[in-house]
TrEMBL record:
GO function terms (MF aspect): hydrolase activity, acting on carbon-nitrogen (but not peptide) bonds
Signal peptide feature range: none
Record's protein name: Amidohydrolase 3 domain-containing protein
Domain Amidohydrolase: 90-551
InterPro entries linked to this entry: Amidohydro_3, Metal-dep_hydrolase_composite, Metal_Hydrolase, YtcJ-like
Listed Pfam families: Amidohydro_3 (PF07969)
CDD domains recorded: YtcJ_like (cd01300)
Amino acid sequence: MATVKNLLIFLSAAAVAFWAILLYPTLNIRWRWDEASAADMVVMNATIYTSDPSLPFVEAFAVRNGRILRVGNYSSMKDLIGQETHILKLEGRVVVPGFIDSHVHFLSGGLQMSRVELRGVKSQDDFIRKVKEAMRGKLPGEWILGGGWNNDMWGGDLPIASWIDDVTPNNPVWLSRMDGHMGLANTLALNIAGICSYTQDPIGGTIIKTIAGEPTGLLVDSAMKLLLAVIPDVSINDRRDALIRASKYALMRGVTTIVDLGRYFPGESVDHVWHDLSDVYRWADSAGRMLIRVCLFFPLQTWSSLADLIQESGKAISKWLYLGGVKAFADGSLGSNSALFYEPYVDDPNNYGLQLTSFDWLLNVTLASDKSNLQVAIHAIGDKANDLVLDLYHSVVSSNGIRDRRFRIEHAQHLMPATIARFGQQRVIASVQPDHLLDDADSAEKKIGAIRAQTGSYMFQSLLSSGTLIAFDAPPGWDTAWIPSERIALEDALNAYTISAAYAIFLGSSEVGSLTPGKYADFVVLPSTSWEEFAEDVPSIVFKTYINGVQAYP
C-alpha cells in the first residue's frame, strides 16, 4: 500500500514537473507581459473631472507611456500597479485636464516678457517712468520695444510721442497697445520710418494726426507696417528664449497646449510665422526643448505653402507640434476704435471701425484654402465684421459642399441679436477671450454705449444656448460678472478650456482635451480639496501641472 502511495506521489510530482517544464515559456511570457502592462503612475485620492461626457468624474486614473491607460475608481487600478508604479496620492485635490489656450501669439508674448512692460500702468507719469527706466544701459540708436498699455486705465486719453520724446532723444521707440492693433512711436522712430504729415493712411489702417495734420505717434492696424518695417528683426536666440520663457509661464498657469496664431498682426510680415516654425519650433522639437504642445496657425496669404507642408508631413509633426490652419483679419479691435460696427463709436461719432481685408479677396482665398482641406480662422470683433465673416463662411459651404471643416471666428466679441443663432446653425466655432473682459468691461460702454455693450458683448451663455461650440483662451481672474446673464456653468467653462478647445483644432478625438484612455496624460492639480470648494472659489493658481504623466510644474 505504501509503495502504491509513494508511486502516486512520485507520478504526481513528475506530472507537475513535466507540465511546468512544458509550460514554462508560456508562464514566463505571461509574467513578463504583466510587468510590461503595469502602469507608470496611478493618480488616486482625488476629485477628478475628466471633461469626457461619458464619464465626467472619476476617483483615479492610470498612466503608461505618457498616455491615460484607464480611468475609474481605485479598486479598478489595483491590477495595474507593479513594483515600479508611482502612486500619486493627492489628498482629495481637484484634478482637471490640462488647459488649452485657444488663441495666443506665443512668441510675441514671450518676447514682451523681456521688454518694456506697460500693462497695468495707470497714469502718464508712470508711463513715462517705465520708458525712462528701460533706457538704462541702452546704446544710442538701439530700439526700445515693449507694450501692453491700455489708455482706459488712466481715463481714456491716448498717449502721444511728446510724452516720451524727452526721455528717448537718441533711441527709436515702439510700444504696442495691449490688443496689438495700435502702437505708439516716438518722434525719432517716426522720422526713421519716414512718417510725416504728408504720409497717407494705408488701406485698413490709420495714422492718427493732430488737427494741424502732424502725426501724433499713434499708428492703427495696417498703418503699423510703415514703422514695423524699419525695426530690426528679432534674433533667433531671442526668439528661442522667448519660447522657453512663455512655455514655463504657461505651465505655471496649468496650460499644457496652446494655439499659436503667430507673430502676425496687421502690418506684420507674413514671413515671421514661417521663420518661427523653422528657426524656433523645429529647433526646440528636435533638441528636446519643447515644454508644451503647440498647434500653429499661419497667415491666410500663405495657404498654399501650408497645404503643401501638410501634404508632405501630415498635421502632426511630433507629439509636441501640430499644423493647424490659416488665419486672417476682418477688422481691428474695440480698444483701438478699429473694430467694425454697424453704428459709429459713441466717443468717435464719425468712426465705424476698419475693415482690414477686402471681402472679395478674403472670400476667394478662403474658398481656395477650404478646397485644400485647410481649417480657416478669421478675426472678427465688431458686430458688422462678425456678420461679414459668417456670410463668407456660408458662401464657402455653398460652393464647396458640406464637410467637417470647423470654421472659426476669433473673438466673436460683439454680436447683433440675430447673429448669435447663426454660429450654431452654421457650425462655426466661437474662439472667445474671457481675458479681454478684464479690459473691456469699463471701456465698452464708453465706446459703443450702454445698450449695445450690455446686449451684444461677450455673449458666452447665449452662444452656448444656441448650440455653438466655444473655445476659451487663458483663464482670467475676476470676482464680479459684467453681464450676469451671460455667466456660464463651471463645467461649461472647463470644457471650453479643454475638450471643446481640443475639438476646435481637430485634436479632441485621440490627443488632448480630456482624461480619456488613449489620450496624453496632460493634467492639472488644483489646490482645492473638494469640488464644492473649487466651485465656490475657483483658484487663481495651480498646485501642479503634468504633461505626458510627468510633473512639469513646479
